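Here is one chain, start to finish.
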Amino acid sequence: MFFKKRRFIANVRELEKSLVTILGEQFPLLLENQKNGELSAAYYFNHQEKFIQLLRKKATRSSLDFVENKALQNFKISGLQIYNVKTNSLLKVKLVVFKNLISKIYLDIDNNPLKVLDLKNINVDHLNVKFFEGDNNLTEKTLRRILKDLNNKKIDLLDLGNTFDIEFKEKILYVILDMQDGNYITIDDNRAVYRIIHDHTEPVKQIYPDIGLFLNSYSGNKNDLKGYFDY
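Its structure:
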């Protein structure tokens, strides 16, 4: 599910800020790293477990220096609760943190969820933290396996070193080009190519049935792709 209102991403920023503030004492790098991961887009997925996926702008040199010089971690957090004004009850919240930046916020609520949350009323109830190993290297290896038949000249046209995966309607999409404005070119496991555009009624749309066809028309100039992101 995708929220068309531009206010949604501003609400997500406020939610993230509130969560990071609450957790900052126990996870100081989470608080410190927030300024290095500016939010570019946010999507709400109405799966069996509903969640918001947070996407970041391309890393700056200062943020890369931070990552290189800090022991950043990946972990999942449960035990948080936010007061739901509409139902007069506490809502359970779970987080997935990747390199000390929140990447997913799980919360079981529909229809512009952040509107009914009291961000000043967040409780920590028996906080449970599970660390996990995982970084973009694994996603990059998966992506390179999908693209194994492409020659190096074609591979060099893509942003594989900065790839990550995005869930959409139970499909995994791998970023192959970062447009640096919250929009992306991605492929799925079957090599079909999609554009992802934030703040749009159709956030994900297939533009080519195969990566080979896409690369036959793409020479490496991202400006040539702007037509796929017209509103």
